[in-house]
Amino acid sequence: MYTRPLARLIEQLQRLPGVGPKTAQRLALHILKRSDEEVQALAQSLIDAKQQVGLCQVCYHLSAEPVCEICRNPNRDDSTICIVSESRDVIALEKTREYHGKYHVIGGVISPMDGIGPEQLNIQPLVRRVSQQTIKEVIIAISPSVEGETTTLYIGRLLKPFTRVTRIAFGLPMGGDLEYADEVTLARALEGRRELE
Predict the structure, then answer these.
(1) Residue-number span of the structural domain to which 95 is assigned
(2) Which DSSP helix (H) or strand (E) runs through 94?
(3) N or C: which end of the chain has fewer CB within 10 A?
């Protein structure tokens, strides 16, 4: 149905998360309408990002430098570390503008079914970091799935000898109705309750 180069482009775009056949086709056709300069700029930005972006040597967040901007920022609280599973979680938390400490990205969650154990994650560097620095609190911000709970409990046991370990509260989203929430979400909302100020 498509000429071979266009079919290959659509096929490659479909490999992106959340991009189905129709979206891939729409993107490919849009790219073909762009000027040569715009397409070259897009291609070059993909190559540059792949070649230049790596992991921070301290927190394992994405960075083009050996140490990321958050770890280098002297205005961040060095005594608090928020543990997340992926860099996208750092980005989500940063958008809230509520957290001012440092991060540690473990690179996934423990999932024996997928062959991912603690040794495949950035957990040992985290333990070294917490045991060698003066950390007042570690906040675990890992999504509440079965694998996430396993990972949270595992990390919590490792870090409790060194510092205070907390986890973010999970519950109802703003504008959510109680009647539509599942039992686990409601239980988490009750557990994470706070006193009114």
Answers:
(1) 73-170
(2) helix 87-96
(3) C
pTM: 0.83
Residue burial 137-149, b: 16+ Cβ < 10 Å; e: rest: ebbbbbbeeebbe
Percentage helix, strand, coil for the chain under 3-state DSSP, each rounded to 5 = 50, 15, 35
Q: Give the separation between CA 84 and CA 91, rounded to whole angstroms.
A: 10
Q: Dig out the tokens for 76 from the structure.
A: 């961040």
In which element (H, E) is residue 131 found?
Answer: helix 123-132
97: left (phi over 0), alpha (psi -120 to 50) or beta: left
Which tens digit of pLDDT belongs to each residue from 128-177?
999 999 999 999 999 888 899 999 999 999 999 999 999 988 776 767 77
Q: What is the tally of structural domains in the chain?
A: 2
Dist CA 63 CA 150 (whole Å): 28
